[in-house]
Amino acid sequence: MYVGIDVGTSMVKAAAFDAGGRALAVESRPVRLDIHGGHVEQDMEELYGAVVDALGTLTAALPEPVELAGLTGQGDGVWLVDAEGRPVRPAISWMDGRAHEFVDAWLASGVFESVFRRSGSAMFPGCPGPVLAWLDRHEPAALDAATTALYCKDMVFQRLTGVRATDVSDASMPFLDPRTRAYSSDVLAELGLAHRERLLAPVSDPVATGELPSGVRIANGPYDLPACALGAGVTEPGDGLLIIGTCLASLVATDTLDLDGEPGGLHISTDRPGHWLRAMPAMVGTAALDWVLTLTGTDLAEVDSLLDAVEPGAGGVGVLPYFAPSGERAPFVDPALRAELTGVSLESTAADLIRATCEGIAYAARHCLEAAGLTGTLAVCGGGTRSPAWMRLFADVLGRPLRIVEGEVGARGAVLASAARHGVPLDVAAWTSPTTVLTPDPARAAYYTKGYETHLTRLSSARARHGS
C-alpha cells in the first residue's frame, strides 16, 4: 500500500495505490486563493490543515498499513516560515503579479537573460527571485523574521517531518546552477539577493527523506511538474508531457543542456544527473476556460456538448487566452500580455466563445511543445482530460497521438520518486501505462495547422502593440 500526496494550487489530494499502481482511493480537500489587485496569496495553516485532514481520512479507511508515502506540490511562489516551519506571512503564490516591476527592469537591463544563461530559468513575476526582491524592498521585516523561504511542498514536508530541505527540481527556479546542481552565488548577486542567501533551504540531492508522525517513510519531491512526468512515464529524451490544469505545462525530457537559445521556460533538474525536463509552464490553462464559463453563465458539464455543436474555427471568433494577472511566462516572458477576443459580433454565441477559448489554449500548448523540442511521444494529464471533446480538439490542434493518462498522476509520480529513493522495487511500466491513446483527425489537423499560424500572427501583433 502506497500513498501519494499532491498539494495543488486549488486542491489538496492524497491518493492510495496498490503494488501494481492501481488507484484504490482518493481524498481531496479544496484550498482557497486570496486574489486582490494582482496579489495572489494562500493561507499556509489552512493548506497544511487540508493535507493533514485528507491524509488522515485516507489512511484511516485503508484495509492495510501504508508502506511508503511520497509528497509533491505546486512550484514557485515564496512560502516564508520560521524555524518551526510556521508561517511568517501568507504564502505568495506562483500566480502573483506584484513583482512584475522587477522582471520588467531585469528584462531591460539584461539581468533577465544573464540569469537564464546561468540557471536555464526564465523568470516570471511569481517565481522566487522577483518575489524575494519585492519582499526585500517592500516587506524586509518579513524576510528578517523568517528562517526559510520555502516552496509549497517543502513547507508541508518540514511540518510533517521536521526536515528543512528542498530538492533540485524546485530549486531550479531560479537559483540552481543545473550543471553543478548547487545554488549559484552569481545569480543571487545579480538579483540583489546575496544578503538573503541564508533563507534558501538546503538542496537535498537525491530527495530528502523522513517519517510521518505515524512512522511511515516519506520522500520530499519532486514538485508537481516533474512528478507528473514520472507518473506519466515521460523519461526518455524527446518524449513529452502536456499537463492541462490551472497551469498549462509542457515538458520534454532531454539529456542535453542548451542555455544559448532564446530565454524562455526553464530547465528542471531531476534526480538523474545529466537528465533534465525542458519545461514551458504557461500561465494560460483551465483557469482561462473557467473564467469564460463564468462570464457566459455556462456549467462545466455543458462544455463537451457545446464543443461538439460548433465547427472548428468557432464561427470566426478567436481568443488569445492570456488571462493571468501576471501575463505570460512560457514560451516567452511578457508580464504585460493580456487576453484578446477577435471576430466577435452580435451573431456570436456562448458556444463560439467557449470553443474559441479551448482552441486558443490548444494553440498555446502547441507553441510551448514546439519550443520545448518535442520529437517523441506525447502524454497528456490534468483536469482537462476529463473532457473527451476537448481532448479530441487537442489531438487535432497538436496533430499527433495523445497518450491520455488519467487519475492522480502527480501523486503517482511522488510515490515512484519515493520508491526509487527508498530502494523499493515497483513495476514502473505498469504504474505509468496510458488510459487510452487518442489519434487526430487528418482533415481537422490540416485545418488547425493554418489556424495555428494565424494564432502566432495575432500573438505577435498583440505583443508588438505594447513593445514586448
UniProtKB/TrEMBL annotation:
Family: Belongs to the FGGY kinase family.
Top-level taxon: Bacteria
Name listed for the protein in its UniProt record: Carbohydrate kinase
Keyword line: Carbohydrate metabolism, Kinase, Transferase, Xylose metabolism
All copies of domain Carbohydrate kinase FGGY C-terminal, residue ranges: 244-419
Organism (species): Streptomyces niveus
Record domain Carbohydrate kinase FGGY N-terminal: where: 1-203
GO molecular function, one term: kinase activity
BP-aspect Gene Ontology terms: D-xylose metabolic process
Listed InterPro entries: ATPase_NBD (IPR043129), Carb_kinase_FGGY (IPR000577), FGGY_C (IPR018485), FGGY_Carb_Kinase (IPR050406), FGGY_N (IPR018484)
Pfam families in the cross-refs: FGGY_C, FGGY_N
